Fold this sequence. Notes:
By secondary structure, the protein is α+β, with helices and mostly antiparallel strands. It has a 3-stranded antiparallel β-sheet with strand order 2-1-3, covered by helices on one side. The chain has helices at residues 33-42, 57-71, 110-127, 129-144, 147-163, 179-188; strands at 3-10, 16-21, 46-54, 98-99, 102-103. α4 runs antiparallel to α5 (147-163). It contains 6 helices and 5 strands; from the N terminus they run ββαβαββαααα. The protein has 2 domains: 3-116, GIY-YIG endonuclease, CATH 3.40.1440.10; 128-188, no CATH class.
Amino acid sequence: MKQTLYLKxxxxxxxxxxxQTTRDxxxxxxxxxxxxxxxxxxxxxxxxxxLYESNHKDTFEKVAMDYSIKLDVVNNNAFANLVEEHGGSxxxxxxxxxxxxxxxxxxxDPQIYKATDKIRNAIRHKxxxxxxxxxxxxxxxxxxxxxxxxxxWFDAWVLHINNQPLSTKGxxxxxxxxxxxxxxxxxxx
Length: 189
């Protein structure tokens, strides 16, 4: 089975993604978590460059890993890769952390959390623009000295927080800010 190592570049944002596939690389969008969310947010306007093709798994894995290291795809902010592309099995499970349709080992990699947090926060802010607006206005009026108006905006912000759905991340409890504590923190910073 022929494997293809490709480099995708988003034409609007310039973000890159190094990946491998056994499918048509020009039609295949890629499977990385950060990359697929990037495509969802900015559209599938990408250029695909074929870097290497091979039917020999061992050779392919070596070339894929060499490109990953050379391009420093995990640490380079120009890339959306969360892990090195090392060729993996030809069935689409190239990620070494992928087992039984889920990630393992992600607790050890803070970059995975950082990238998924950025994506989740961008979606949350896009879905709830009023929440951030209320918080910023509360801070603005507080620093300006208009505590009554700041308190109104603060209350609106807390209302938005309370109306947000509960997290699906297990035992997470909402952190509801308290006016007097929040006010002290804002005046310090």
